[in-house]
Specification:
With 361 residues, the protein is of the alpha+beta class. It has six helices and 14 strands. It is 15% helix and 22% strand. The strands form three sheets. A six-stranded mixed β-sheet has the order 1-6-3-4-2-5. It is elongated, with a radius of gyration of 21 Å. Belongs to the kiwellin family.
């Protein structure tokens, strides 16, 4: 009965979300109306070989253009003739909108475009992002074909629009029914998440979205981390296994103190944390764009349990750079915990990783 009620609640939420129109306003100018979505931190700029955008055009998805690498959703490039877009990190929602057709309206015209990429609102100022700053949080980054279909002057570079998730020539009820069927199937599927680093299978629909070329550097080794190797490729994940009442994961050891292997300050509070604090970082999918910041999760292993506070992301997409201690991206089922968490669970820190379960109690 509880499962049926949960499915019904999720279906209602989806129907409301599908019918909502999302306002996207000019990015680089400080537009108002962003509500409670505030900056999570500030990225220090770093100049480099930045491919200049012709006429300040926001989005080019062709190889060698200002879009950087291949699109996140399909690991492919797209012609300027295709109607495709990238959405800000929050709207991209860990690839949840990949392949969706969104309706964009401006200048008295409307056009449908396919979501193929993320306009990264967290990372930037590096080669992967064409040495451009992170996107603002209300961006629809569109190909030239979208601009042309809307009758817009590409030299403007940015225009106020509205967008919504309305599938072309499809009844809303039918779309909602399809989504409900998908949820029922997903909720009834097995949710076993096993250890990634130990090479176990069973990751379900959460597959690697790409591969990061390794680059070695000054890797701080106080907690015996895996350091990046030149030429090696590391999988990247935008998703994590589904969260259940007893989510299986891998516990890894991390210091959140300044100058240790945790890298910069924690994402949630822009602060460092003592090894005596019970704090954790979660893989990108579970971190869910900071949605779990400050949450206390229950971690169980070795016949013991402990509560720990979520303060950071264990980045499953980026790595092999100074910000990430020249370590590879995290796997998608990681709870990266402080020494205090390991001690409370009675675990041997020299092991480095242990199978655990966790829940949001």
């Amino acid at each position: 009965m509880a499962t049926a009620r949960a499915v019904a609640a999720l279906a209602i939420f989806l129907m409301v979300a599908l019918s909502a129109s999302h306002m996207a306003s000019s990015l680089r100018p400080g537009a108002d109306g962003l509500g409670v979505c505030r900056a999570s931190g500030y990225l220090p700029g770093q100049s480099g070989n930045c491919e200049k955008r012709p006429g300040l055009l926001r989005g080019r998805f062709e190889k060698g253009k200002d879009g950087g690498g291949p699109s996140e959703c399909d690991n492919a490039y797209h012609s300027d003739e295709e109607k495709v877009v990238a959405l800000s990190t929050g709207w991209f929602s860990n690839m949840a909108r990949c392949g969706h057709q969104i309706k964009i309206s401006a200048n008295g015209n409307s056009v449908y475009a396919k979501v193929v990429d993320e306009c990264d609102s967290v990372h930037g100022c590096d080669d992967e992002h064409n040495f451009e700053p992170p996107c603002d949080n209300n961006i629809v980054d569109a190909s030239p074909a979208v601009w042309n279909a809307l009758g817009l002057d590409q030299s403007l570079g940015m225009v106020d629009i509205t967008w919504s998730e309305e599938e072309p020539k499809m009844a809303t009820a039918r779309a909602a029914a399809s989504m409900t069927m998908f949820l029922v199937a997903a909720l009834s599927a097995s949710r076993m998440a096993s250890s990634l680093r130990l090479g176990a299978g069973g990751l379900g629909v959460c597959r690697a979205s790409g591969y990061l070329p390794g680059r070695s550097g000054n890797c701080e080794k106080s907690n015996d981390p895996d350091c990046c190797e030149d030429g090696k490729e590391y999988p990247q994940y935008r998703c994590s296994p589904p969260v259940t009442a007893s989510t299986k994961a891998v516990l890894t050891l991390n210091s959140f103190e300044k100058g240790k292997d945790g890298g910069g300050p924690s994402e949630c509070d822009n602060a460092y944390h003592s090894d005596e604090e019970k704090v954790v970082a979660l893989s990108t999918g579970w971190f869910s764009n900071m949605a779990r910041c400050g949450h206390r999760i229950k971690i169980s292993a070795n016949g013991n349990s402990v509560y720990a506070k979520v303060v950071d992301e264990c980045d499953s997409v980026h790595g092999c750079d100074d910000e990430h201690n020249f370590e590879p991206p995290c796997d998608n089922n990681i709870v990266d915990a402080s020494p205090a968490v390991w001690d409370a669970l009675g675990l041997d820190q020299s092991v480095g990783m242990v199978d655990i379960t966790w829940s949001e109690e």
